């Protein structure tokens, strides 16, 4: 899944949910389930996610939504070989960015 977010230091939960096309409740749920998601909270208690959190959400989203892992299976996979998963996700991200660019060029030609 190609996520098109502007480069910022922090993202609000609504921005993250919209980018991943999920409900904010799922973002909060994954935050509680996965230790790799650690948003900062402002004085009001609003969650502020870093770009690192977004990358971790991409990993989780890929494992759970795209590859069909259960939450426990995704947790185990992340603990077993996190380096390989990160490398695979980086390759997927690059390919999706190329695909998005090619689609944009195709639409301009037509």
Q: Which spans have pLDDT < 50 for at least 5 consecutive residues?
A: none
Mean pLDDT: 88
* CATH architectural grouping: Orthogonal Bundle
Helix/strand order, N-terminal first: EHHEEHHH
Q: For the record, what CATH class applies? A: Mainly Alpha
Q: And the CATH topology?
A: Multidrug-efflux Transporter Regulator, Chain: A, Domain 2
Please identify the structural class as seen in this structure: mainly alpha
Helix content: 55-70%
Number of domains: 1
Annotation field: number of helices: 5
Percentage of residues in DSSP E strands: 5-15%
Number of strands: 3
What's the story with the biggest beta sheet?
3 strands, antiparallel
Report how far apart the termini are: 25 Å
What topology, given as strand order, has the largest sheet?
Answer: 1-3-2
The radius of gyration over CA amounts to: 15 Å
How would the global form be characterised? globular
Short synopsis of the structure:
The chain is mostly helical and 110 residues long. The protein is built from five helices and three strands, in the order βααββααα.
């Amino acid at each position: 899944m190609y996520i098109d977010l502007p480069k910022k230091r922090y993202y609000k939960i609504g921005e993250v949910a919209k980018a991943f096309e999920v409900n904010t409740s799922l973002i909060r749920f994954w935050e509680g389930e996965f230790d790799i998601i650690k948003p900062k909270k402002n004085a009001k208690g609003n969650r502020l996610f870093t770009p690192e959190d977004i990358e971790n959400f991409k990993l989780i989203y890929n494992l759970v939504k795209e590859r069909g892992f259960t939450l426990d299976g995704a947790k185990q996979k992340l603990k077993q070989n996190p380096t390989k998963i990160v490398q695979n996700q980086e390759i997927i991200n690059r390919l999706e960015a190329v695909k998005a660019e090619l689609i944009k060029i195709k639409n301009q030609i037509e």
